[in-house]
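Sample A.
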Amino acid sequence: MPAVITASSVLCAGGRGTEQLWATVRAGISCIKSSSLVDRSAEPIQMGLVPASAIPPLPPELQSQPLPSGVRRMLQLAGSTLSAVGEAAGAAPLTVYLGLPQLDPSAVPWLANFLSLLSGCAALPIDLASSRIFPMGRAAAILALEASLETLSQNPSAIIVVGGVDTFLDLGRVAALDAEKRILGPRVMDGFIPGEGAAFSVIRGPTAMANNPTPSTARIEGAATTLDPGHRYGSAPARGEGLAQAIDKLRASTSIGAVASTFAGFNGENFEAKLWGVARLRHTDFFSPSMVLQHPADCIGDTGAATGAILTAVASFALSAGQREGPSFIWAASDHELRGCSLLSK
């Protein structure tokens, strides 16, 4: 019996809770608005941000800590979202596998303490010894999911909370992207709309389900990641092969098919479209001719390292609600070399 998802929670511009976000995405409602940030031409930047009223303040003990504003925002987004699935995860302390933005641990002193800070923000104990962070960008949460399946294969009685969090509401980060002409605007056509969000899913191994039967929203048939040297900032030719190779790896571990619905990690830039185009052509037989394609970034913007976690939560809800057929394919690609995909079924 494969691992299963028994609960999920999301917070992003599209709403709080997986059901609300899925309703937003399914209806194609745009949650993109002008922000207080401006680009190099003094034009307001369009962003997919969570309303301030929906984000709880940091606990008093964290407010006085000298943390960058982007870190504070991520803790606020992730804290309340993790709290929402804490009870469903069962006995504390929680084992958390968390995707984060692409960061160099040696250059970011707060990174090693992020899970400890998150525990205080969520008011939930986290088993820091068994938990892990994956600071790898947009596909990080799929890497976290792949790692969780490896852990569950060795310890099928385990329960792991897999998630991701990110925000582009960061002046330095936005300025750097604006200088690269990557933010969509009146003078940039091949760009993306910055967003933010957090999502977590409770993953139970087969023995954990047998010992304590719990309704599940989806079965996880597999997850796979690869490293593509031809990434956006790499020196190798950008052939767009990384996602296709990740699908090769995924298909080698599961015989299920053909994919009936895809939840795609598009962010609006041509680079991601090229990845999908190559992967789709090389794996034509893997996808049903009537496959339905969903790309939530159209509604909520690019949610960075939260992308894989948000797509997983939304896909599992859509399957459980009978509003999308399975199996459902999920993919995301980081700005650097990581490419990831996963497969869910009812």
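Sample B, a different protein:
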Amino acid sequence: MNIKALRLDQFRPYALPVALLLGSLFHGFCARLQFLTPYLIFLILFMTLCDMDVREVRVKPMHIWLILFQTGTALGFYFLLRPVNQVIAQGTMMGILAPVAVSSTVIAVILGAKMSNMITYTILNNIVLALTAPLIFTFAGGTSDITFLVSAWLIIKRVVPIIIFPLIAALLCQRFFPKIRKGIVRFRNVPFYLWAFALTLVFGQTIEFIIHQDRSGIPVILVMTLISLLECVLLFSVGRWIGKKYGDRIGGGQAMGQKNTLLAVWMTQIYLYPMASIVPATYVLWQNIWNSWQLWRVRAGGKVHQEQPPNATT
């Protein structure tokens, strides 16, 4: 056993609260460093995907149903709420549309899910988002006078590089540079702490934005916080129901419910109304409360899945 890695793992339970605390205390400084976020996301995804075995990727009906429900529900709620409030509509959409977190594989396998299902959905979900996000953001934004094609191209140039390029780079590294890939995998703890740093920056930027809002925006913030809680319950529940149909209840729930909120918050703040990012920003609290409770139940019962997961992070 790697003693150094074990010692680093001891700090993991504290990473989320520390990141949120630092983001809250140093929100002004974090807002000035927001330009680092896309580079951190790229590096996190690349290092994590290098640790995944792409030979296990097998698209199954479960994955298709999860994608269809996630995309369809996100768009459905957007069109339903848009006449009421555009900001709430965008936030609700992004809370559901956010891609699965790469760390879902780690937690899901510990809870008893099938690793191959999680790896497949992680890659598939991020690819689908990269391909559909330009179209969705173009019609959902509606804040610019530029043409649809120009708007779509501008979004493609910024979204695809941080989602698709890490995947391509990881595949090339695995195929042609196995020694480099092996060296990257040795530092599998690094992406986790990069994620914590990136989360600090994004949450700090969100706090900075909220502080500069007038008091009239507080009711909307509270509503979006409640929406994120309801979304968390909905996505984990429906995901587990779909997964149960295909013999992987835990995998379905984690794939649907555990979100890469870091990427979702960044994309929302860049392409939509910044205040809408409150939904994915607060979603991270609910999903981590649920995951912590699940992991506590597993540890209390002494049952840990024997399949060794990759050490994913985001």
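Observation for Sample B: The first helix runs from residue 3 to 9.
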